[in-house]
Automatic annotation (TrEMBL), chains A, B, C, D, E, F, G, H, I, J:
This is Cyanate hydratase. NCBIfam families: cynS (TIGR00673), PRK02866.1 (NF002773). The lineage of its organism: Bacteria, Pseudomonadati, Pseudomonadota, Gammaproteobacteria, Moraxellales. Keywords: Lyase. InterPro entries: Cyanase, Cyanate_lyase_C, Cyanate_lyase_C_sf, CYNS_N, Lambda_DNA-bd_dom_sf. It catalyses: cyanate + hydrogencarbonate + 3 H(+) = NH4(+) + 2 CO2. It comes from Acinetobacter indicus CIP 110367. The gene is cynS. It is an enzyme of class 4 (lyase).
Length: 149, 149, 149, 149, 149, 149, 149, 149, 149, 149
């Protein structure tokens, strides 16, 4: 009996390691970005029927699991509010150290409002660099203004 | 008596509002990016002597305040571990929802290690878009590998 | 020296009590809803120049305070993450008890996405009722869909 | 052995996904609002015998599970005090940003007291809108005055 | 400048100690219970004009302070969510140890609903007892049923 | 293998729902108050041999479970330090809103000390009332004075 | 204006350092144990009139401060729920590591109940020891049994 | 498969209740204090081979479990940082209320340093008393001085 | 089905105790430091294929478990943010007590930046000492400077 | 009036920046390590009379401040339990990632016990390195064994 999406995420992770599947290959088969597809497999996005069935084939999932992939999950992928994993913590640190800066500069350019985390995309790329390669990430979010009413 | 950098940040914020100073103008006068300069003014980076003196002139600060700008501050710009401000929260949400995805994809590309938050830069730009302008942010951090020893 | 918007909110609250000013009257003078105007006076929204000057006259604020009213504030009006005040707690309780219900029903109707808290308005009205008057609140938020990319 | 209502909620969620059941259909069969019926199925309300039996038929539950549906549950549907799911967080954000405003306006209209979360109903509707459909929610709660004694 | 009710509570506490005023005497002058009057003086209830003026005379308060007594305060009188003071902690402990019991017994008697903390009164009395006097407290709250809708 | 009292509480709760047992009937069979007996069944009090055996018969427990009923449990019946269940939260709210009042009035009457939560009893009764029945609760705790030494 | 006992504690601490006063000397003048007297000076116990006046003379306090010493304070002397100071932390650690042991052994000897922290005394002594002197502390608390009712 | 010491503690607790074993008897068989032996059985101390085998016989443990008794456990016996159990909480309260006093008096006698929680012993005894028996506990810890270097 | 690295860590810990394996022997077989190898076995580092297979032989792991050893784990080895285990707490205490000192001295020597926890190694050694042997730990981390941009 | 050591630390920090004083120079004048002296100046260690007077001269402190330097402070130099400053966080991360490793290896070498944080010293040095200089830190703490009793 599956009653939480986490159970399906566990099945995917288990199959991924057993069969040495790459997220980028999965993304290619689905025909979407590796960022969105990985997030979906990790239980952060809902898939449509066709996508879910492909994922089911790739990871050898039951029909019940495939049905769950089409359900909108309870989102949030971190076990604690301040993440302990060093890679993820660095992102938390960027938000903490640069948070007030990001706020000031977006408001200076756009006025009161936010950068959407829904109408949003992310692109992670390796940049070759002689002093050591870099991780370059482009975050793109629609500006949503507060309006008086 | 100044005994915490926050006091200088308060002076800067007060002068900024009174005299309607723009962060982008400050950055231009310093000759560095608006992201780094704003973070420095908000107490997240240390300035060198020349930079501190220019900031002192722009915001009309005392010599004591200028001296404090050259001290490395205790960093972290948020009052709570989960930020309440909607603009900053969206960034926290991105880390929470996409955190496991970012981890998977960087490890798939680079192996075990992190994206540095120190050898790091950020660039925030407006992108015109017919459905509403977007905030585009490029984060660039050196990949730092864990090595066995 | 004003270095935080909270100081201006304190001035407004002090003047409001001293002079027995009603939020609904303030809203009428500004020509906007009582919900938005009150939120703005309480440091949750930024005012434009004209609005800020009117607020300045109503609450007898200094020019510096009026300048601060036009700055986007760090939002979040509650002193603790779980509010202790009984009136506000009831709203937190509604989110806690009905949170999973709201999520299920919006997803059933709209698919994956959220109800915006930015492109959002609120209207609070008294409804006469023979068993005791009721507080009726209409919340209206644009549906923002997650999209695959 | 069932010893917690959560076990029954899990059974309902599992059956719902397997058989692709809609909350609005369940509500129609019960003859009550979709908001109350969904909350009840998710373990936030107690059902009477007749309602529980109907729910038992719809979701194919055991007699023991049907008995548990008639027990008042320990309420609260969120795993953390600040919810991480973006849809539910937006509601938390509304309470945080507008909390002091809601308090001020209800007190201005009604005096000291609260808006009940018990003598309470909620109605969630789609509103068509040319700039994108909206989620409209009406919350109705009896005003309960504090009285001196 | 008074901008928070806590400032008035501080004035009352200061005057109470300086002039050795008893809460029971204050209650007698106001003509209400010592429980409600003390709570009001401690910033947990709003007073009407007449009551506020009497309190103003007793504690020698300014007009501004008297005006604040008529404002509904942000309630909650404890500095931490788990109180450290031994007397108050014992009450928290009662809620913790007997919480599930109270819930079971009220539901067994009344069905689903709550005991109101708004339509509520409290009476604290000394009971003489040969093994040591006892504190007897009567809590009375209206039962508010959840109703399906 | 039983290694925690919670396992026995789960057995009791399961049997109670299956066989529709009332706490007040259990109390009558034990010959003690419904408050103490319920608390004991919910894992907050230790039973003596005779009481445990009667409880074992009523709820059809194994000898091992009956042995565990006689062990002093680790007390505290709430899953979070601030309870989310509305009925229990109202009690937490009473402690929060009236905490400082309770402290002041007990000290005014008795001097420094506490109201015991150990030499303590509780009695919950329905009071008929024309405006809606009330829950009346009498708490009785021995006053324990601090003494200098 | 004194409105919190902490202000008096601050005066005492300031005078103690300026005039190099020893807690043991203060205790001798009051004629009580150093443990109780120190706790009282640090804002954890209420003094009677005579004791307060002596403390007032020793630490050169105003009449207002002396009046406050006779008020029962809000107790709890630690700034965080887990203390950071190494000396105090060791005591917290003892409670954490030995907590379940203490519980088991007191229940084995006395049955269900607690060791009172109110009818309680503490005696701290230096014990000479060839491997380094030891701190010996005797805690004495009345056993208070839970009783069924 | 045993992978955590807690599993062995659970086996010991289960056997203890089933066979009605007393900690003091266990201690006698081991030939050490009841305090240390109980702490060891509860997973807070490591046993040597001989001790572990005796414990294994007393509680009828497997060889694997006996092996685990000789592993140093991850210490800390409380499920929450502020304990909810009334008996253990009283000890937390003593640390909270008397914490600053203990610090002051140990420093006054010994200078800067701590009372060790490692080179430490505890002895819990019943003291007969006409007003009710008392729990007397002697804590003995080596004083460890901070030294400059 | 293995879906989390913790399951493999549990297998390793279980085999280690059953077969009395020493970390230093494991390190010797792998040919790396005991610090890195232990951290890897405890789920804090990713192993390469060869290393994982050797670990698999030593601890008798399945192929699936060996595959998981090569996956980068979610790092962080402590169950609570403030560790309760006395040995680990002492390290937390060093960071708390000496944290500001470490910050000041590294900045004084190197300017703004950090000591890397990624390009990092640790060496733990016993130092014989007549007053009791000492644990000597060398931490070595690359200095990473913040740079303006 | 000085009533907390933090006030003296603030005076020292203010004077340090104004007069551009180096911690290493202060240490040289005191004749002790820079680590201990800095910790003492930052309010984590108590100074003796001679040391305090020298510090008083260096930082131009009042006699009252010099007296406070000789008082044992309430230790702990971090504003939050998980530090936000990147440099200090890296140390917290080391404790988190390597915590279980440190525990395993010290126990493997020494048996049950801890590495003292009191009989402890720290030495921070720059190590030149062609790939970038390193921070080398030697931590030395006496091993303190748990003993059975």
């Amino acid at each position: 009996m599956i009653s939480h999406r986490q159970q399906v995420t566990d099945m995917i992770l288990s199959a991924k390691v057993l069969n040495n599947i790459q997220w980028s290959s999965v993304a290619q088969e689905i025909g979407l970005s590796k960022e969105w597809v990985t997030a979906a497999c990790l239980g952060q996005m809902a898939l449509n029927k066709e996508q879910a069935e492909k994922i089911g084939q790739i990871f050898n999932l039951s029909d019940e699991a495939v049905a769950w992939l089409q359900i909108v999950p309870y989102k949030g992928s971190l076990p604690t509010s301040v993440p302990t994993d060093p890679l993820i913590y660095r992102w938390y640190e960027v938000v903490n150290v640069y948070g007030s800066t990001i706020k000031e500069l977006i408001h200076e350019e756009f006025g009161d409002g936010i950068m959407s985390a829904i109408d949003f995309s992310m692109d992670i790329q390796r940049e070759s660099h002689e002093n050591g390669d870099r991780v370059n990430v482009v975050l793109s979010g629609k500006f949503l203004p507060y309006k008086s009413y």
